[in-house]
């Protein structure tokens, strides 16, 4: 798959032996940023990589993609002689991707990077699109760039080592992408939901389809100023849920809850049809099972969503389904009625 970007085209290729091939032929002038857990799991597979001269192992925690950690990463790269003609290689999920992409955009005014995504969430969604998002202080994803990789290499074999919760986190983003594509597409993935967890060929098909859907949007609106906005469906709510729970709820699970909450709020405000929440609540709740009753403090949630970078003035800018289930960017007053709806959803409707 070739994706067009402002820095030229880049490829996203499926290769079950991607890590093995990297280990067999390590690029010259490469600096590796690797999820520490992945490094431990695949120590035998990427032994040569781990023995390379410039390897930075990072725990995949939200706190490690914060601005105050960047000097540590820069110091490591500078100590290892990084130059503008070098390449950063990320091996891990979204957190490692964000760190590497941000560094590639800013270090020496820009160097190349490659990505080997090892989580379903990264493989099916974030690996294409050029975005990086970095936390600063208490503000989540407040800094970032649009810096496409030179290449993405996807090995679905690594998904075999993910636990079920990690897989469901990725499936949450896949459900989002298929909802964006339309009611029929969402119905298809909902019907195949169980097979995503039991049939590798079905999972591969939906990963590829998710990327194909996203590709069409990011090539039209790479800088997220128009049509691509709808990929934030579930994210304003989801990010606020993550922040309010101190990230006790994983990102893709938070997005799943966020989509359900968006459907609920849309129906209750009259912007959308109440029946959509009823129709989709079952499949979305299955995906966020185990988190139906996780406490989400309403005040902390409202404080977090009020700081969302997509807001304009005092209004929230939300992605909500209209009466035809089409997703629309919609201004929403952050008032008493909104607080009431959020409280009802978080304390009652979510677990219903």
Question: Which key features would you list for this structure?
Answer:
Rossmann fold; Dehydroquinate synthase-like, alpha domain; 15 helices; alpha/beta; two-stranded antiparallel sheet; 352 residues
Could you please describe the fold and organization of this structure?
- The chain is globular, with a radius of gyration of 20 Å.
- The protein has a seven-stranded mixed β-sheet with strand order 1-2-9-6-5-3-4.
- By secondary structure, the protein is α/β, with parallel strands linked by helices.
- The protein has two domains: about 1-160, Rossmann fold; about 165-350, Dehydroquinate synthase-like - alpha domain (Dehydroquinate synthase-like, alpha domain, Up-down Bundle).
- The protein starts with a strand and ends in a 5-residue tail after the last helix.
- It is about 45% helix and about 15% strand.
- Helix 7 (about 165-180) crosses helix 12 and helix 11 crosses helix 14.
List the helices and strands and how they pair.
Blueprint: E1 2-3, E2 10-14, H1 18-24, E3 30-35, H2 36-41, H3 47-50, E4 55-58, H4 70-79, E5 87-92, H5 94-106, E6 112-117, H6 120-126, E7 131-136, E8 139-146, E9 151-154, H7 164-181, H8 183-191, H9 193-196, H10 200-220, H11 235-244, H12 251-269, H13 274-287, H14 298-306, E10 315-321, E11 327-333, H15 336-347
Parallel strand pairs: 2-9, 3-4, 3-5, 5-6, 6-9
Antiparallel strand pairs: 1-2, 7-8, 10-11
Helix pairs in contact: 6-7, 6-10, 7-8, 7-10, 7-12, 11-12, 11-14, 12-13, 12-15
